[in-house]
Amino acid sequence: RAFSPKTLDRLTGKSILWVDDNPINNELAVRALKKFSLDIEQVTDTAEAITAVERRPFDLVISDMARGQNVGAGYELLSMLRQRGYRG
Questions:
Q1: CB neighbours of 34 closer than 8 A, spacing ≥ 6?
Q2: Is the Cβ–Cβ distance between 58 and 50 less than 8 Å?
Q3: How far is CA 26 from CA 30, 56, 63, in A?
Q4: What is the H or E stretch that residue 43 is in?
């Protein structure tokens, strides 16, 4: 068991937005997390991420910091989320 029942109860039903231009690289991690009844939405760029957070709240945002040629993409997403007052 990876987590105690108490920890597992706190994870169940939480939502994660995962931003990565190569989502296939996260396939195993996503499958493992979904076994804990986590709701994971995957998007590939900042624009899709902003659209997703405007549509619904997430408990956690995971972002690849360098996406494509933009080595600061994750930092830009963080800045945009903060500008919008997003707190998850």
A1: 40
A2: no
A3: 6, 22, 11
A4: strand 39-43
Say how far apart CA 25 and CA 39 lie, in whole Å: 18
* Residue 5 token pair: 């029942």
Under DSSP, the state recorded for 25 is: G
Burial class (CB in 10 A: 0-12, 13-18, 19+), 18: buried
Q: Which residues pair with 18 in a beta bridge?
A: 42, 62
pLDDT tens for residues 33-69?
A: 898 889 999 999 999 999 999 999 999 999 999 999 9
d(CA 1, CA 73): 35
Token reading at 21: 């231009």
DSSP assigned state of 13:
T
Q: Which helix (H) or strand (E) holds 5?
A: helix 5-11
Q: How many residues does the chain have?
A: 88
